[in-house]
Every structure is written in structure tokens, then in C-alpha cells.
Fold this protein.
Amino acid sequence: MKDLILIAIFISLAVCLSAQKDSLINLYGPYLGQELPDNKPVEFAPGLISTPGNNEFCASFSMDGREFYFNREMVIMVCVLNKDGWSSPEPSSFNGEYRNHEAHIAFDNKRLFFGSSRPPQSYGIWMTERAGTIWSEPQRLTDGMYVTSDENGNIYYGIESASGSMIVCSRYVDGRLSEPVIQDIQFAESTVTPSAKFHPAIAPDDSYIIFDNNEGLFVCYRQSGSSWSKAISLSEYLGQRKATIPSISPDGRFLFFAYQNDIYWVSTDVINKLRDQHSLKQK
């Protein structure tokens, strides 16, 4: 009997030690210490962020590169870089008991936007503000979904209307979003459903915008003033037609997107090369 007890104790200790080891990911440096991708998309942090049996999507790094937010199912997860390296993914403090998704941390590193259906309001865009190291109680800003922002403070997001989905631009001023301006985005291919435009991802310098629809990722390049080039299929260029939910790293170097329930990333050099191929103007 004593031998059985000892065996059980040893097994318990082994499990505990294994769990402790798993919680120490021993990753340091930018982008969770991952090898940087080139022009071919690869899974981001496989086994840690992109994991078997889970639906992971929506990648967002803070401006200083020390926080990483993403969704695992309908829970917003976060990893933090401290003196001991990157922490393991854990639910963010503002999740509460609700289904939340699609977090985006602004360039000022003080505001974080996300989508939520928390009561008593209907689904919409919510925001939490940082007070020291603590995120405030979230407040609902407006109808819409999936916020992205550039380094100048412009905020882009999607809204639904009777004619379909569209992308709008606004600014956060005096505690509220300004009147949204609809972005005139047209497709280069007539076969693409024109009313389907979801999940905008604006470049930090506002030089291009990526979004998805039912057919994959598309990119538009900034022309003169507020106009955009016609949208070009980016998914075909990447070789992943069903890619969705794009985001751009704050330094503008990498494109993240969801594909087959995992998060992928690729160098944004592919976006610049595609612009050159189509002889499109830069801002």
C-alpha cells in the first residue's frame, strides 16, 4: 500500500514539474522570439499560439512590442515580455465572463479596442484604457466591428448596412468616435462580390489597407488624397485563398492573418512587390 502511495506521489510531482516546465516558455526578443518569416507565410509560434484543436485568430502587438494579444476561440489571450522573457498565453484581464474577440491595441499603447456582446447593449466596439499596468472597465463606443488604427490616430473599422458591409474611417476625440467616413473601395475583378468587405487592417503609415471577404484577402493602395486603388487579391499571391482577419505589425514589417484555425505571418515585402507589379502610386 505504501509503495502505491509513493508511486502516486511521484506521479503527481512529475505532473506538477511538467506543468511548471510548460509554463516557462523560455522565449526572448521581438515577436515571441520566433524566426522571422520571408515572403512565404508560415505559422506563428506553432504549439504556443497556433495550437492543434483550437481556433486562433486576430494578432495584435503593442507599439513597444512587449505585449501580444490574440483570440483563442472567443477569449482574448495575452503574452507579455518581461525580464524573464515572454509569459505563456493567458486570458486578458478585461475578458470577464463574456465572449470577446478581435483586440487591437492603439499606437499610443493606452487604448485597446475589441468586439463584444456584453450586456446590456448589443454587439459593438468596446474600448478599455490603460491606467498604469491595469486596464479599465471597458466602455461601448459604437456599432461596428474589428478596429485597426494608423500611427496618426485614424481608426478604421467595419460596419453593416442594408447594402452590405463597408469600411469606415473615424477618430477618437474627447471620449468618442467622430462621424465615420465611408471608404470608397472598389474591386479590380468584376467577379468579386462588391458588398463584402470585412476586417480592415491599415498600414501604420496609412499607405495601404488590407481586408477580407468571402474569397480571401485583398489590398488597396493609397492614391492621392483620400482615394484608394482598386482592390487586388492578396490571397492568390500568398497561395492561401481562404485567408482572413488580417493585421499589420506596428513597425509595418509583417502581415498576420488567420488560416485554417491558426495564425500565420509573412513579410510585408510581398505587399510592396505586388504594388510594384501593378505600377500603383505610393502616398
User: Anything to note?
Assistant: The helical segments are 2-23, 235-238, 269-277. Confidence is low (pLDDT under 50) at residues 1-24. The longest strand covers residues 164-173.
